[in-house]
Design brief:
The chain is of the alpha/beta class. The chain has helices at residues 8-20, 23-30, 34-48, 64-89, 101-108, 169-175, 197-204, 220-228, 238-247, 276-291, and strands spanning 53-56, 59-62, 95-99, 121-125, 141-145, 153-161, 163-167, 188-191, 216-217, 233-237, 251-252, 261-269. The chain has three domains: 8-89, Arc Repressor Mutant, subunit A (Orthogonal Bundle), CATH 1.10.10.10; 95-161 and 261-291, D-Maltodextrin-Binding Protein, domain 2, CATH 3.40.190; 163-252, D-Maltodextrin-Binding Protein, domain 2 (3-Layer(aba) Sandwich). The radius of gyration is 29 Å and the shape is rod-shaped.
């Protein structure tokens, strides 16, 4: 369908005059003369075949039609301005991603070179659950912990994962960790964000130690790092540590796992739904999660243990 649009210069002049309530102030805003603004408004009134302003002494007042029309135009032009700025800035400004340190180090950073604007990504990390208050977090996108809805924020479940014990090869050899019961005498790394050792021991069919030995860390990444350094055994997220296991720095212990759950989501302001960089980042990271077999909406979660399905 062919659009029947009025002259844009006339629309812009009318909307500015209606918004500021003065032809002179609209002219200053648009860097035009007052005469030019008046001419554009008359051209729009001729196009619409209706009066948009009426003069009251030295002032102008909107007609009822003009008031209704100007309100809709202001909304449209504000959206047009925001969209234009996002497209114009897309190639220049950094793209700010806020996430947990474990997600950044073990999952996001190794894949960034596959994102078309990966060189523009600026990463900030949080010890706890990353804030989704976009008025204060200085982020374009947050990799949100879990998938709880947040008012004014789009939350797209990204990644699901189970957990299982991991340790350094040296720790495994030193402690002789051959069966799940052996963990009852090992130093266990605890995660204060979501400690799931009780769930794992239940899955393994083992009575957990009454007084589990081991330090507590603010997040799973620090617990996993401690395990890498030979300090004990951590309960790691499969989706995050697969590459570390492949490198041989850590060893997975036993087949028992916790129930998979959505551990990360992509979150961004609802007002940025059509932002081209936000959309491309979201589509890219969802595709990466799907290729790795850890996407939240995949039909079956594929554990890194060969042949194991949950």
């Amino acid at each position: 369908m062919t659009r029947k649009l009025p002259p844009f210069a006339a629309v812009r002049a009318f909307e500015a005059a209606a918004r500021v309530g003065s032809i002179k102030e609209a002219a200053n805003e648009l860097h035009l003369t007052a005469s030019a603004v008046s001419h554009q408004i008359r051209a729009l009134e001729d196009y619409l075949d209706t009066a948009l302003f009426r003069r009251v002494g030295n002032r102008i007042e909107l007609t009822l039609t003009g008031r209704a029309y100007s309100a809709k135009l202001t909304t449209l032009l504000d959206a047009f301005d925001e969209t234009t700025r996002s497209v114009k800035d897309a190639g220049r400004r950094p793209f700010r991603v806020h996430c947990t340190p474990g997600f950044a180090a073990r999952w996001l950073v190794p894949r960034l070179d596959r994102l078309s604007f990966g060189d523009k990504v600026r990463i900030s990390v949080s010890n706890g659950a990353p804030s989704t208050d976009f008025a204060s977090n200085n982020a374009d996108v947050v990799i949100q912990w879990a998938d709880e809805p947040v008012q004014g924020v789009i939350t797209e479940p990204l990644m699901q994962s189970a957990r299982y014990p991991v340790a350094s090869p040296a720790t495994v050899g030193k402690l002789g960790l051959h069966k799940p019961e052996d963990l009852c005498r090992a130093t266990l790394m605890h995660d204060e964000t979501m400690d799931a050792w009780g769930e794992w021991f239940a899955s393994a069919g083992v009575e957990p130690p009454i007084f589990p030995c081991g330090p507590t860390f603010p997040n799973c990444e620090l617990a996993t790092t401690a395990a890498e350094q030979g300090q004990g055994v951590a309960l790691a997220y499969d989706a995050v540590v697969r590459a570390t296991l492949e490198s041989g720095i850590l060893v997975r212990l036993f087949d028992a796992i916790t129930m998979p759950f959505v551990m990360y989501s992509v979150a961004y302001p609802r007002s940025r739904t059509d932002d081209p960089m936000v959309r491309e980042f979201s589509e890219w990271i969802h595709a990466e999660a799907h290729a790795a077999g850890v996407a939240a909406h995949d039909g079956q979660y594929r554990s890194s243990a060969e042949g194991l399905r949950v």
